[in-house]
Amino acid sequence: MKNGTATDQAATGAIVIAHEVGLHARPSVKLTKLAKTFRSAIEISTTAEGPWIDAKSIVKVMAAKVPQGSHLHVRAAGADAGDAVAALIGLVEGDFGEAEADAASG
């Protein structure tokens, strides 16, 4: 077993953005709001090599203008890194909660 503490955990994941407008206004807000609920540092990128941007910064996330069909790589470092990555991947998998909103309104 590796020596270390819960504060030096790291996790990564990746998913394809299926949302029709990509990672723009509403999806970006949802992603950053969710990221801010975690203590870990969380970054996103469209490639595994970066450049990486702070997932807790709405300005930086919206400026990335990630289009539909792009890979979104997520990495986190901190005590809740695994949960953070899983939650953000889950948000994207669930189309940023918009499928439920469409079903509720229709």
**Tally of helical segments:** 4
Could you state the order of secondary-structure elements as H and E?
A: EHEEHEHH
What is the alpha-carbon Rg in Å?
14 Å
Task: Give the biggest sheet.
Answer: 4 strands, antiparallel
Separation, N- and C-terminal Cα atoms:
52 Å
Q: What characteristic shape results from the CA principal axes?
A: globular
Strand tally is: 4
Mean pLDDT: 89
- Quaternary assembly: single chain
Low-confidence parts: 1-6
Q: Percent helix among the residues?
A: 25-40%
Strand content: 15-25%
Widest sheet: strand order? 1-4-2-3
Q: Structural class, from secondary structure content?
A: alpha+beta
Description:
37% of the residues lie in helices and 20% in strands. It is α+β, with helices and mostly antiparallel strands. The chain has a four-stranded antiparallel β-sheet, with helices on one face. Helix 1 packs antiparallel against helix 3. It is globular. The model is unreliable at 1-6 (pLDDT under 50).
